[in-house]
Write a structure and sequence with these properties.
The protein is α/β, with parallel strands linked by helices. The protein has 15 helices and 14 strands.
Length: 398
Amino acid sequence: MMRSKLPAGVHPETLLVHAGTLRSEFNETSEALFLTQGHVYASAEECERRFAGDEPGFLYARFSNPTIAMFEARMAALEGAEAARATASGMAAVTASLVGQLKAGDHVVASKALFGSCLYVIEELLPRFGVASTLVDGTDLDQWRAAVRPQTRTFFLESPANPTLEVIDIAAVADIAHGAGATLVVDNVFATPLWQRPLELGADCVVYSTTKHVDGQGRCLGGVVLASADFIGAHIHNLLRQTGPAMSPFNAWVMLKSLETLPVRVERQTRSAAQLAGALAEHPHSLRTIYPGRADHPQAEIIRRQMKNGSTLIALDVQGGKEGAFRFMNALRIARISNNLGDAKTLVTHPATSTHQRLKPEVRAAMGITDGLVRISVGLEHPDDLVGDFCAALDRAA
């Protein structure tokens, strides 16, 4: 197979159409879907060389696959990473990025503003294997410094965070981590690689749930881990090979096609999110609107420094607590209730009873997740229709 080559310095939009493409002897235009578990070898000697790593080539779909390899190469080109490994889901990527580095006796420092499943991995799963953790207020750099121990191996954060859209100074936290001899892993799903580049800010590893904006149309699960070739080789490659959280070739193919339209979709969704956030902030029945593109965001200065644009996500605190939030969500006519995000359809969820429901009320309160908080993922509908839908729902809920 032949891999296509691009000129140096092309823009992300071009990379997302062409980067990493492998073409078979048929010279297909669209990326080929290789629905195969294994591969045959010309000789027993060739098989031996492949398994020994002495000859490049594909072995088995749990290890590698041509379609998945194209997806990994395209994501690496977009992110500016040396290497990438695709996984079956975003949480598989998060788990691999941590477990691959850690052993019994190690220590993790993480921001407390995290997706519920990420908190589960750090607070419940890792301690079963002797890995301790400390959760900090991610916006307080002194807490990151104070949490460091001699056994600290890695830092982990989301920015913007799920669901409060808290933004953390990635470069400053990376400096603290590296000063302690630790690495920094960043979940960048809310910003997408178009609006934020954590590796350029000093992060050692970036993870995504490609289920979100990358697929962008609510079809396939997937995840990806991106880092230097050394990081992937030392911490990720063999773990995925031996434990098997492999992305399916079909899902990789779907996401390859979705990447071609990622800039068009995310740019439109971001513009619409900014317009909707402005309307919600001025509505008399909203208590608080949090959006990374607004001047009143608590970390607006950091956002100006490290993000190219806002986000497709909005956090809205409505009047009346849980009952008010439910009345508001049930009154929507265009937006739909779903815990997914980054979709072509505008989706809303109530974090306190969905993505973060397993957390104790006091923990949610410390994270800024009130009973009236609604997370909004803005889709591709016309922004005027969304403004009308959300404002009318606030009126009906009140």
